[in-house]
Each structure stands twice: as C-alpha cells, then as structure tokens.
Design brief:
By secondary structure, the chain is of the alpha+beta class. 33% of the residues lie in helices and 22% in strands. It starts with a helix and ends in a 15-residue tail after the last strand. DUMP binds at residues 135-136, 176-179, 187, 217-219.
Length: 277
C-alpha cells in the first residue's frame, strides 16, 4: 500500500471504532431524499508527505479522478471564478451543481471569486519571489464578508500556508471538514498539484505537503463502502508519481496536459457514495 492508503485505513478504522457521532443530533446536511446525513468523526487529524521522497498522497484502494481534481484547482486559482458554466464548459465538471446558489449559475461569493476579490494568488506568487523566507505566505478562503454577501457552501479546504527551506517549497493545507472516503483523497491530489505549480512558477522544488483536518468524518450511508475499502490491498508503496512535466513557469499557463501520473493502477471496481448536500 502507499503511505496514503495506510493513513486512510488507519483513519477510517479509528473513526469507526473510537470516533464520536452525530446520531440523534441536529445536523445541517441532508441526502437527496431529505434524510439528515449523520456522521461518525474524529477531530484534529494531521498527515505529512515528503514529496522529495516520493510520498505522493494518492489513494490506490479505489480509482481517483485525478485529472478532474486538478482541473477544479485551475477553476479556483487560475480562472478565479465561481461560475458553474465555466466549470462545466471548460472542464466538463458537474459535481458542484448541487451547490448552485439561487439559480445564479454560481456557487456564491466563494472559492475562486474570493481568490480574485482579494488578489490572493498573485500576492502569494509575488511574495514568494520577493521575500521567499517570509512567514506570511498564506491564502485564506474563509472570508466572513463574502459569506454575508451571498449564500453558498462555506469552503472546506480553506487555507494554505507556504514556507521555503533550502530551495524547497513546503505547504500545509488546512481543512475545517473532510468527507474521508470521498473528498479527502481528491483534496490531497488537488493541493499537491497546486504546490507543484506554485513551486515551478517561483523557481523552487516541492518539499513537504502537510494536511490538517479539523473534522474528519464518514457519513452513515458510506460505512458499507468504507468497510469494503478496508479489505483492499492497494498498490505497492511509493510507486505512484504525479509530475509537472513542462518548461512553463507562468502559473496561469499550466494546463492538464502538463501533468503526468506515473504508475497509477488503483484497485477496482470504484464505489458509489451518496452525496450529503
């Protein structure tokens, strides 16, 4: 198994055997049929991956749509938009449609719209170039002024911290909430790809990727699928690589054809997970 597989199994086992739950409590999310979607969860989960040692955080216990995951990062940090039309027409991604706000064809003043409003991406890139050893290289998508302006899902992957050491760029992703069997693996791929892009744009090599999840949970209707994943073996450790294979250095010119995934042969079949909205 890869390091990500082992951590996934350990986390799911801990949630199911030692975690808390929301059964009987009032919860916000619901399934499509209107039933409240309850979770089993633990708080304060920390993971570390050294990209220089080949510790790429991809799950091989089931197939992950890694290209679509990276395309969503383009939508947020390159296009800097909240438009569902852009997401569908440019990238053929539809999973955000359930979070459309009031028939606006947007997800509200969130994610890419927040990046654009506060010029967060350019500030990060300029800061890393001008003062690489600064300790203020942070992108924060959790802006209360934006939440008050429109409805919309509050950002889950909400903050990144960036630091330089000896020619390497380390990054920490902070999430307030993570649906472990569904979005957790996707988010790690996305933000590792973003780390590769930023490192390339500022003339550094990717270093450590760290991931802090405040609330890591499994929905009640996902438990059977999780138990099946726990029986799978996955691939041999550390043979999977994501490579940004390009001479480009302009952050806004990277595209999906610049990324290569080597050695990825996940266990099949894939599994179905009902969304909680």
């Amino acid at each position: 198994m890869t390091k990500a597989d082992r951590m996934f199994k350990d986390l799911c086992t801990k949630i199911l055997t030692q975690g808390s739950h929301t059964l009987g409590e009032k919860v916000r999310p619901k399934y499509a049929d209107g039933t409240p979607s309850h979770t089993y969860f633990i708080n304060q989960v920390w993971e570390e991956y050294d990209l220089q040692k080949g510790e790429f955080p991809i799950l091989t216990l089931r197939p992950i749509a890694w290209k679509s995951a990276i395309k969503e990062i383009f939508w947020i940090y390159q296009d800097q938009t909240n438009s569902l039309d852009v997401l569908e027409e440019k990238y053929d991604i539809h999973w955000w449609n359930d979070w459309e706000v009031e028939a606006t064809r947007t997800i509200g003043q969130r994610y890419g719209a927040t990046v654009k409003r506060y010029d967060l991406m350019n500030k990060l890139l300029d800061g890393l170039k001008e003062q690489p050893y600064g300790r203020r290289h942070i992108i924060n998508l959790y802006q209360y002024g934006d939440f008050e302006e429109t409805g919309g899902l509050f950002p889950c992957a909400m903050e990144t911290h960036w630091n330089v050491r000896q020619g390497l760029l380390d990054m920490t992703l902070i999430q307030r909430s993570s649906d472990v069997p569904v979005a957790n693996a996707i988010n790690k791929i996305q933000y590792t790809a973003l780390q590769l892009m930023v490192a390339k744009a500022v003339g550094l090599e990717p270093g450590r990727f760290c991931h802090l999840v405040q609330n890591a949970h499994i929905y009640d209707r996902h438990i059977d699928a999780v138990q099946e994943l726990l029986l799978r073996e996955g691939q041999e450790a550390d043979q999977v690589r994501l490579i940004l294979d390009t001479d480009k250095t302009d952050f806004y010119r990277f595209d999906i054809d610049d990324f290569k995934m080597e050695g990825y042969e996940p266990d099949r079949p894939n599994l179905s997970f009902e969304l909680a909205i």
